[in-house]
Specification:
This protein has 13 helices and 11 strands. The longest helix is centred in the last third of the chain and has 23 residues. With about 350 residues, it is of the alpha+beta class. The strands form 3 sheets. Strands 3, 4, 8, 9, 10 and 11 form a 6-stranded antiparallel sheet that branches. Strands 5-6-7 form a 3-stranded antiparallel sheet, covered by helices on one side. The chain has a two-stranded antiparallel sheet with strand order 1-2. It folds into 3 domains: about 80 residues, Arc Repressor Mutant, subunit A (Orthogonal Bundle); about 150 residues, 2-Layer Sandwich (Beta-Lactamase); about 90 residues, Heat-inducible transcription repressor hrca homolog, domain 3 (Enolase-like, domain 1, 2-Layer Sandwich), CATH 3.30.390.
């Protein structure tokens, strides 16, 4: 990006904030009335023309005022926004809402989607945390018939999986409990990769139990994440989406979790802003997304974010996404911790 003078930065910032609020191109006359800056109309026109030549502003037709380009929004987000933290009273309210929720991921996700949409004034999406590397808490072997055993597998985070095992010979509950205790001593607390590779001398039944254990843990790691959404109806009322093709593209992006996850390439705790598709995603040419990953890196992570027109209030969107991602990371740590 070209270096702008302080005056050009000030003018660009005011034009963008005004356009975000009004959805109307900003003329030099309107700029002076709204900004209260002590510049002549000719000076503002010249500076706006310079910003247009640099690619930060554009205008829909000759007599219209200026409006930001994607490049202008990018400069605004990276150089001009400053502090984007939500006000303290809003953060306290949001935190209180989360503390009132039950210790259950589905409720947190719905609450997070609602808070994101309402606070950012965009459409929100949140995917459930994916367990990247399942950890075994413990297993149980329960006799149901002389040759039929129920394997109960408990993973970190309270995930429970069950499978029946048919025995070659009958085995009573005492022997099954002793076998389960032995396997727990060997494998409890280990992740899937370690369970797979750990060398332990095992009998036939123990080998079969470990084989099923690896199979169930592997299936848990591959599960597709649930997605909760909110706020799309309000965003579709924005003037940018009067055009049906733009509205369809927005809905397509909004409803595709695979597309959402393909956009996110930042570590947990970092906010990513995608403006106008960045020239790579045609579906987002009229949209912007503010995204973040949440959870515990390398163990369980999900994605959350907000989507709206490029004319979005980036300060609120970034502040909201960052704060909700922080809360959700804490929830994941509490839920999946020891």
């Amino acid at each position: 990006m070209a270096d702008l003078t302080l005056r050009q930065q000030s003018i660009l910032g005011i034009v963008i904030r005004t356009y975000v609020a009004t959805a109307q191109p900003v003329s030099s006359k309107a700029f002076l009335e709204l900004s209260g800056l002590d510049f002549s109309s000719a000076t503002i026109r010249n500076e706006m023309a310079a910003l247009e030549d640099l690619g930060y502003l554009t205008h829909p037709h000759t007599s219209a005022g200026r409006m930001p380009t994607d490049k202008g929004y990018r400069y605004f987000v990276e150089r001009l926004l400053g502090d984007v933290a939500l006000p303290l009273d809003e953060r306290k309210t949001i935190r209180h809402q989360f503390h009132q929720a039950r210790l259950e991921m589905g409720q947190w996700m719905q609450l997070a989607a609602t808070v994101l949409a309402r606070t950012s004034r965009g459409a929100s999406l949140i995917t459930a945390p994916q367990i990247e590397q399942p950890y075994l808490k413990h297993l149980e072997l329960i006799s149901t018939q002389p040759k039929l055993v129920l394997l109960v597998l408990v993973l970190q985070g309270g995930v429970v999986r069950q499978q029946m095992i048919v025995l070659r010979e009958p085995m009573d509950q005492t022997a099954l409990s002793q076998l389960a205790a032995f396997l727990n001593g060997q494998y409890a607390g280990l992740d899937l990769a370690t369970v797979r590779t750990k060398s332990v001398e095992l009998g036939d039944l123990e080998t079969e139990v470990v084989r099923i254990l690896v199979q169930l843990m592997s299936a848990e790691a591959r599960q597709s994440a649930d997605v909760v959404r909110d706020g799309l109806t309000g965003v579709l009322q924005e003037p940018e989406f009067v055009n049906q093709s733009d509205a369809r593209a927005l809905v397509s992006a909004f409803e595709s979790p695979a597309f959402l996850n393909s956009l996110v390439n930042t570590p947990v705790g970092t906010v990513q802003v995608v403006i106008g598709g960045e020239g790579r995603w045609r579906e987002l040419s009229s949209c912007s997304m503010v995204l973040a990953r949440y959870g515990t890196e390398g163990f369980a992570t999900g994605t959350l974010g907000v989507l709206g027109p490029t004319r979005m209030p980036y300060d609120r969107a970034i502040g909201t996404v960052r704060y909700v991602a922080e809360l959700m990371s804490g929830m994941v740590s509490d839920l999946y911790g020891e």
